[in-house]
Amino acid sequence: MLELRRLRLLRELDHRGTIAAVAQALAFSPSAVSQQLAVLEREAGVPLLERTGRRVRLTPAGRNLARHAEALLERLELASAELIDARRGLAGPLRIGTFPTAARAILPAALIELSRRHPALEPMVSEIDPAAIGDALRAGELDVALIHDYDFVPQASTPGLTVAPLCAESMYLASASPLDAPPDQVIARCEAADWITASPGTACHQMTIRACQAAGYTPRVRHRIDEFSTVLALVAAGQGVALVPHIGTFDAPPGTVLTRVPIRRRTKVAFRSGGGGHPAVAAITEALRSSVPVGLDAE
């Protein structure tokens, strides 16, 4: 009989590509992952892995079994949702991952609404690097998460996860002085300006770089700041220009000029595939939809 825990490891290896990455994501040692996969091979009775030096890849049989593992794990999420629904009561921890602006502008009102409707639920919120959210959801460290993408940086699909749209918002060019240009020319007019971007490797940083490249140039980056309130403070101090989403502009200091540009940021709710019917996931999603701030478009 194939053991589900080992099938999960195989699924993760198919997704991540290395035993070290699987071990890091699931808090195992690499040797433990290797041992469990060796046991799974013996249970399966056919080779599941091909080893070339230190590298490991799945055989055709291994890839096929990984696809079945994906389906089994999705069915397990569905079964869990049905069991909770049968108990007719929501209680216990609900682990929510989020990015900073959503934690400030969307989640507080949603948690108030969730508490009103389901007082026995215990939401536990963690700010988490968007790049790590997929791993945390798949590993069971989070139950649901808020993620975002931009027009120039669409969200890549992740096996084992389902994403539902929540809301969309406009982006603004923040500057210390007005820009006399139509919206589609605002970024092009800033070619000679210093820019403030998020840290390299983030979606926000990629969005700024690609938006400028679409306008015909590569921006000259002076500051790299992730917190939008700090970005706006630097803009007001004449340190450069920046692209900021609508909910990042709520604390814009005096002297900041915000010019709307034709770029959108979209916020979405992510959860494990099969978990959309989980009562707790459905409850927080409903609360989030009812708490979308003014100025954002519900989707």
TrEMBL record:
GO molecular function: DNA binding; DNA-binding transcription factor activity
Entry keywords, A to Z: DNA-binding, Transcription, Transcription regulation
Residues spanning the membrane: none
Keyword Transcription: yes
Pfam families on file: HTH_1, LysR_substrate
Span of domain HTH lysR-type: 2-59
CC per GO annotation: protein-DNA complex
PANTHER family: LYSR SUBSTRATE-BINDING, TRANSCRIPTIONAL DUAL REGULATOR HCAR-RELATED
Similarity annotation: Belongs to the LysR transcriptional regulatory family.
Name by which UniProt lists this protein: LysR family transcriptional regulator
Organism of derivation: Planotetraspora silvatica
Origin organism lineage: Bacteria, Bacillati, Actinomycetota, Actinomycetes, Streptosporangiales
